[in-house]
Write a structure and sequence with these properties.
Blueprint lengths: L1 H30 L3 H4 L12 H9 L2 H32 L5 H11 L4 H15 L5 H26 L3 H8 L4 H12 L1 H16 L3 H6 L8 H11 L4 H32 L5
Helix pairs in contact: 1-13, 3-13, 4-7, 4-10, 5-7, 6-7, 7-10, 8-9, 10-13, 12-13
């Protein structure tokens, strides 16, 4: 009876993983097959070739658009991490009037659809000269993940005991030195979780990129992907190769950063 109970969670996890991982498996399988075999659906790999990746890199501007996506994601993720760390610490450790209401309003802004954010950004960036710019797009991407990052870091710093800061103050450290030398090293797992979340949100964004970028040399990868369907004349093997490369950074980030993701969510109380 005890063995059956211990086996049940593994079976349920297995059932959950099948529909979750199957699309990624199908995408990788199609990317590694010849174009002719892609149109002959079978469960296992019918042929093996890397020609689809070679065709993608030689005949499209994949590398340029990937570079644009990487720049926007790194800039926006860095801004989100810095602002979430400073903002979360200020909300948790200072006596800001109505700080709970402020945090709730910030979190509420997370619920806005991207289209509603894109329209005011378009008008504002047009006046500031940030339209059609990677920096402008990165700033717009900050709004996608900063509310969640701020909320997570606020919860994280509230869960940390005050004894760390009291010991630093007894040694003569200022508030900023205490934050930089004591709190930041302690909050690496939570900050890493925020970085991964912000990077994925920026890397996968389609709506804001479509609204704020007009120059095809500055398109991000999701925008370029929508054009590959026309450029490649429905060559689904090459398109699946592009899909696989688009999904790869997010997958690697989660795989290598899962330890920090779990610790960050646990210490902030969001995993309880």
């Amino acid at each position: 009876m005890a063995e059956r109970r211990s086996l049940l969670p593994k079976v349920l996890i297995g059932i959950y993983l099948i529909p979750t991982l199957f699309p990624f498996y199908w995408m990788l399988k199609s990317a590694l097959e010849t174009p002719a075999d892609v149109y002959k659906p079978r469960l296992w790999l019918g042929s093996f070739t890397l020609e689809n990746f070679s065709t993608l890199l030689k005949t499209t501007n994949f590398l340029v658009t990937a570079s644009n996506s990487l720049q926007a994601a790194l800039i926006s993720s860095t801004i989100v991490v810095v602002c979430s760390g400073l903002g979360g610490y200020a909300l948790a450790r200072t006596n800001i009037p109505r700080k709970t209401l402020i945090a709730q309003i910030v979190l509420f802004s997370y619920m806005f659809p991207e289209v509603l954010l894109g329209i005011p950004f378009f008008a504002l960036f047009q006046k500031l000269g940030l339209l059609n710019s990677i920096w402008g797009l990165a700033i717009a991407h900050v709004t996608l993940s900063l509310p969640f990052g701020l909320w997570l870091m606020w919860q994280f710093y509230q869960a940390l005991p005050m004894s760390y800061e009291e010991a630093a103050e007894m040694d003569g450290a200022t508030k900023f030195q205490t934050f930089l030398m004591v709190m930041v090293p302690l909050s690496i797992p939570a900050l890493t979780a925020v970085f991964i979340f912000a990077f994925a949100a920026s890397w996968n964004d389609f709506v804001l990129g479509l609204m704020l970028i007009r120059d095809d040399q500055k398109f991000t990868l999701p925008i370029a992907m929508s054009l590959f369907v026309q450029q490649m004349e429905l060559n689904w093997a090459v398109i699946q190769a592009a899909n696989f490369l688009l999904a790869l950074p997010g997958l690697l980030l989660v795989l290598f950063g899962r330890k920090y993701l779990v610790r960050g969510f646990q210490t902030s109380g969001l995993a309880n």
